Request: fold
Amino acid sequence: MIILGIESTAHTFGIGIIKSVGKKNSVLANVKDLYTTEKEGIIPAKVADHHVEVCDVVFEKALKEAKIKKENIDVIAFSQSPGLGHTLRIGAMFARSLAVSLNKPLVGVNHCIAHLEIGRLLTKAKDPILLYASGANTQVIAYEAGKYRIFGETLDIGVGNFLDTFARALGIGFPGGPKIEQLAKSGKKYKKYIELPYVVKGMDVSFGGILTNIQTKWNSQMFSKEDLCYSGQETVFSMLVEVTERALAHTGKKEVLLGGGVACNKRLQEMVKIMCKERGAKSFVPENQFLVDNGAMIAWLGKLQFDAGIVLEIEKAIIEPYLRTDEIMVKWR
Ligand code: AMP
Ligand code: MG
Reply:
């Protein structure tokens, strides 16, 4: 079976193709085009225009990379929730027209759960806690009693959004996370840790106040870029690791899986690894191309759902920008 997955929840338009024969699953293609800027952040309508512009090229590239024709596709999956309405609509439209023209079944998937399932497929983690740290989303998710439950999450912006907005204040463009990671490592060998608010409320985290605080510090011109980047990372990553550790303690699980673009950050990976080691658990990190938003993860969850009989009628294949991870019945586990 060949499954095509379309990702368009935010800045990335991606198409992944997975081939599944018996128990063997392979990613034939995982092509993406990311909307980037030099200075400003992202404006949903502009990103939607970007996706319209690149969708055909990304599709053709994916077919070429997978060495298949579009007629070989058996199932079409698309990210249906959650995300920016402007951009989700482009992926959904692309998926619907492909499903109609090829007369193939259509599957709508939840983006956050797709991060978790592709991680389980590729790392062999069995029943992990997912630390999903991305641009718009920050959630600690795990499977309990038929659903992927959210054990902790951000109360305001995603951790990636925090990094990107701070990067915009520094004038280093979008996406800011990788540039902040570099700045945090550069400069003096021993960085000065600048005290920032540390905001964990119960099992949840919040970044808005830290953002205001760090931007005020930057504007005061009393601190270096490098020290602020270093201190910002140390603070917000510690918060994420604390909540993840408590989710491990609460559920009794023994595995942590990383997902989302921010999880590409080597320092975050290191901190999670240390925490896991200290409490006898194991951490799993998929390759970067599967951490960031990508079409392959949508294809893979599409396959799991298709096998479980969860398909959509074309007329009902509408986007659900606000659907939460824990609203979905997990019939495939
Ligand atoms: P996603 O929404 O999952 O595709 O992830 C995009 C987010 O990941 C953006 O906010 C990026 O700034 C962030 N990101 C990507 N690479 C890194 C990195 N090395 N360190 C921190 N954040 C990163
Ligand atoms: Mg994502």
